Structures are given as structure tokens and as C-alpha cells.
């Protein structure tokens, strides 16, 4: 069954108003303030097909860097569509072969590991900053300040 899939489009540079207008004639697009990220709906049988179809429709019109599904799939995964150069693909194939994997499997593991490492690094940075705060302030002061800041930054429920 064909469904609509929300796709986020990351661009290599901001779009000019003319580029946006021309691309919008072919594919309805929502744009962010600095014109470097777009959203589109693509009808397809699955998220991978939606990304592939949208890549084919937009590649000649826009400086597309990455396409990604906006919502996770049934397995909780966000799909990515990246365009690699021939030399990049050759390097990926060599690395995958060296590990006895298919290129898609290799890339999936590498991206997952990089995201996990980034999350760990961000958590460690936050913990170090908290340690600095606790060196100069009491736990109660830090908690009251954090509570106040979180209350000010609370977003309306979706």
C-alpha cells in the first residue's frame, strides 16, 4: 500500500529564492528560516522508496546533501539517503569486504556507532559542566536554577 512519508532534506548551502520557487513547482516543500533544510511529503510503498524517489526528483534541481525520514520506521530506525562519490563507494566497499559485511550493513553500523559516541560525548560534557557548577554552588542551588531554566524553556505539548 502506498503511503505518504515525511522526508527531511538537508542542503549543502542555502537556497536562493528562485531555486526554491523552481523546486517547489515540482515538489511541494516547507523551508526553514535559513533555507538549508526542507521538508517534503513523498508517496511511496516504503520509507526507502520515498527517499530514493525524492532524491531522483530533486538531485538535478537542488544542492541536496542528505535525505532522511522524519519519523522512525517500524524498527525505530530513521532512514538516510546519502549520495557518495565513486571513490567514496569504493572505499566503503573495501572496508565492508574487509569486515565480511555488505556496504549497507557496514555503513549502518558505522553511523550507529558514531551517533552513540556523539551521545556519550555530549553526556560527558554535560556531566563535566555540572561538576564545575557543583564546585561553586550547593546541590539545592543548582537544582533550583535548573528547574527555573527548564520551566522557562518548556515547549507546548504536541
Strand content: 15-25%
Strand segment count:
5
List the total number of helices. 5
Q: What's the average pLDDT? A: 90
Order of helices and strands: EHEEHEEHHH
What is the helical fraction, as a range of percent? 40-55%
Shape: extended
Specify the biggest β-sheet: 5 strands, antiparallel
Unreliable stretches covering 5 or more consecutive residues:
none
Strand order of the largest sheet: 2-3-1-4-5
Structural class of the helix and strand makeup? alpha+beta
* First-to-last CA distance: 28 Å
What's the alpha carbon Rg, rounded to whole Å? 21 Å
Task: Describe the protein.
With 158 residues, the protein is of the alpha+beta class. The chain is 53% helix and 18% strand. It has helices at 17-26, 47-58, 86-98, 103-136, 139-152, and strands spanning 3-11, 30-31, 37-44, 64-69, 80-82. The chain has a five-stranded antiparallel β-sheet. Helix 3 (86-98) crosses helix 4 (103-136). The longest helix has 34 residues, at 103-136. The protein is extended, with a radius of gyration of 21 Å. The chain starts with a strand and ends in a 6-residue tail after the last helix. The model has no long low-confidence stretch (mean pLDDT 90).
Characteristic terms for this protein:
alpha+beta, single chain, about 160 residues, 5-stranded antiparallel sheet, extended
Amino acid at each position: 500500500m502506498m503511503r505518504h512519508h515525511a522526508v527531511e532534506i538537508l542542503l549543502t548551502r542555502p537556497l536562493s529564492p528562485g531555486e526554491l520557487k523552481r523546486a517547489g513547482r515540482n515538489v511541494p516543500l516547507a523551508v526553514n528560516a535559513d533555507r538549508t533544510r526542507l521538508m517534503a511529503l513523498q508517496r511511496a510503498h516504503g520509507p526507502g522508496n520515498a527517499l530514493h524517489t525524492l532524491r531522483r526528483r530533486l538531485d538535478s534541481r537542488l544542492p541536496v546533501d542528505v535525505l532522511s525520514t522524519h519519523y522512525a520506521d517500524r524498527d525505530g530506525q530513521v532512514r538516510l539517503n546519502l549520495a557518495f562519490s565513486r571513490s567514496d563507494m569504493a572505499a566503503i566497499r573495501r572496508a565492508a569486504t574487509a569486515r565480511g559485511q555488505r556496504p549497507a550493513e557496514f555503513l549502518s553500523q558505522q553511523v550507529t556507532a558514531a551517533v552513540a559516541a556523539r551521545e556519550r560525548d555530549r553526556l560527558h560534557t554535560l556531566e563535566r559542566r555540572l561538576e564545575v557548577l557543583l564546585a561553586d554552588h550547593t546541590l539545592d542551588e543548582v537544582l533550583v536554577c535548573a528547574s527555573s531554566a527548564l520551566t522557562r524553556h518548556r515547549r507546548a505539548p504536541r
